[in-house]
């Protein structure tokens, strides 16, 4: 199936870094976030057989993109804002823009992003739910989802309620939280400027990273406390069968990024309509092969299907944040 054999963005980046050499690659890595470093490091470790043609293609493509870049070295606020909004989307970029353009820093909170989920959970599990909500809001949704797995269940529902209710947080509150974390992590305290954190969308993005059973349980607890807020969060959530709402071009972009592992498993739990939409956007030969694989595959555990679908949804979320596809709100409102 050709869509699965193509190198994705992470693989191309890994080949580029391997081609640069240790010192140059390390210098590039210094400017990346912890999640990007982890993903790139894992991709580089998997690169055991890179052909000369593949390496040359990646390098040639990179050179072509660089030569087409006309804003190199401009350094203006307008360019930085436009670049980050295009790369991350307006919601995710807003806080980062404030930190960059206004000289803000967040050493204590930033250090959490380099820690493993269990260590973070051990560090914050005795904090007030409002503090947990602020910390979860500051993390990337994927990391926040991992941390939640190691927190006491009684705290998670309350923390998610508060996360969904957050709109703006005063700089003094974030600075105080940062000071506490700095002291616990034995670092130096820095000033911080933050405009906004949290909200229903932030809560939905975290819940989207959890297993269906866990996210459903948390949402139900939220509904018991505030049904209106829980409904707003649920409207922002995006499930696998919602991919049927994508236009053909967006679905084809997504297909190019989906790895072969787990795709058949994910489709085992998909609606017939979504399966057919995937098949329609593949080549005839690839669609026939996929149908054969589905028929040949035996029974699969529901947990395995959900895990495979979550993995594809994470890819879709990344593409949506990069502006390559549009997922919308994930609402179940009917379309005519």
From TrEMBL:
InterPro entries (UniProt xref): Flg_Motor_Flig, Flg_Motor_Flig_C, FliG_a-hlx, FliG_M, FliG_N
A cellular component term, taken from the record's GO annotations: bacterial-type flagellum basal body
Membrane topology value: Peripheral membrane protein
Keyword vocabulary terms for this entry: Bacterial flagellum, Cell membrane, Cell projection, Chemotaxis, Cilium, Flagellar rotation, Flagellum, Membrane
Subcellular location: Bacterial flagellum basal body; Cell membrane
Domain Flagellar motor switch protein FliG middle: 118-189
Domain Flagellar motor switch protein FliG C-terminal: start-end pairs: 220-327
Principal location: other
GO biological process: bacterial-type flagellum-dependent cell motility; chemotaxis
Record-linked Pfam families: FliG_C, FliG_M, FliG_N
Keyword set includes Lipid metabolism: no
GO MF term list: cytoskeletal motor activity
Domain Flagellar motor switch protein FliG N-terminal: 7-107
Similarity-based family: Belongs to the FliG family.
Record protein name field: Flagellar motor switch protein FliG
Organism listed in the record: mine drainage metagenome
